[in-house]
Amino acid sequence: MTSLEKEAAVSAAAFGDKTSSAFKRRFMIRMIIVLTGGTFLDGYILGIVGPVSSKMTAELGISTVWEGLIAAGALFGILIGSPLGGWAGDKFGRKPLFILDMGLFVIASVMQFFVGSTQLFISLPLQLFVVRLLMGIAIGAEYSVGWPLLSEFSPARIRGRLMGLTLIAWYAGFMFAFVVGYLLDRYTDLGWRNILGTSTFIAMALFLGRIGMPESPRWLWSKNRVNQARSIAHRYMESASDMADMEREVAHSGGGFRMLFSRQYWRVTLFVSLFFFCVVTPYFAIATFADSVLQKFGLGGGLAGGVGLSAVALAGSVATVLLIDKAGRRVLTVPPQWIITVILVILGVWTDAPGAVVLGLFLAFSFFNAGCGTLTCIYPGEVFPTEIRGIGTGFAAAFSRIGAGLGTFLMPWSITNLGPSVTILIAAGIAAVGAGVSQWLAPETKGKSLSETASGFSH
């Protein structure tokens, strides 16, 4: 038994550990389901737009600018919701935001059914954009609260794997939505409003599943609510070492944006934000409009094209999750980004490449991008201390969505006006920046406790 485990055992005996290992395992399974469900839902609302975009565009008579804005509306909402949710989660606790953000999502998701059904003083495209913006705000809050909450409950030995599951859920949600949207659009009489509104059923199930979830013991400890922290930790946490590590955390004074950009943590903020930005920007732009991108390169789009990119991306994320707690973080972060850069340069330069080669390169891009992209939901929960774990995660997610939103918004315009070759080369440049920043700053956090990962990268 290690010294940490001995300390935890003494604390448990003194405080009274009243729950069984089976109870704790059931709780952890429930925690994983309701948290991965949030990222599944995020992927779903983004993926469902692609299959109905042409019908929606035709019915509303909207321009490519509005098409891009509606597709990117949720991304811009995340830009707002992530830092606000992170700030609120650090100040008021993870638990209340964990419920409120999903409640907002249920409301906004239901509103999709009624776009244009009532007379408002704003146009139909603007109504839809506002609804998607509200959904994005809810999802943004989900990132900045859900990921910290999962990292604060996860055992250190499998934390990477559990955190990585959230991105697997995202790709699964995106792919599932593309299939559902395509099939409903092609084989039913449902309008695009009803197809977009199918996210309501997922949101409601998650809202109900979150009722009664506990507060993060590490957050309580950071607020000097020691007895509550110990009570929840001994009731729900499996790892004695992690419980002892919580009690070794030293609460930092201050917090908020000032601490985020302090001398001690500016490198953490810079790395996580730029890494996140450069990974998601090319993917969102290409995957959201997979059908039109593949057709511009002379390939057939439709269900096979859109699902193919998402399915390979899902495989890349699964591969990373299986390796993350054995191989470590850096080896799965840095090399894949250089590979992505090379792939995109080839696609941009080799304009007359055979169709099979182009398709193979796009699939390889999806695989490696998703692989290193899995770290975007692992690093934030590990390298920020408890006092700014929420706002740090939220800021990084918001910064990334600037790129994702602009990429999704500008992709239709760029392909039309600059051409697919130049568009892909721009994506290659963004990927190269991410690779360089990760080469410089990406830390190795495999197997370390949260107090070690947060303090070790700040010096």
Automatic annotation (TrEMBL):
The record's keywords, sorted A to Z, are: Membrane, Transmembrane, Transmembrane helix
Stated membrane topology is: Multi-pass membrane protein
Transmembrane segment boundaries: 27-49, 69-87, 99-122, 128-150, 162-184, 190-209, 268-290, 302-324, 331-350, 356-379, 391-415, 421-442
Q: Name one GO cellular component term.
A: membrane
Q: Where does the record place it?
A: Membrane
Signal peptide residues are none
This protein's name: Sugar porter family MFS transporter
Organism from which the protein derives: Paraburkholderia tagetis
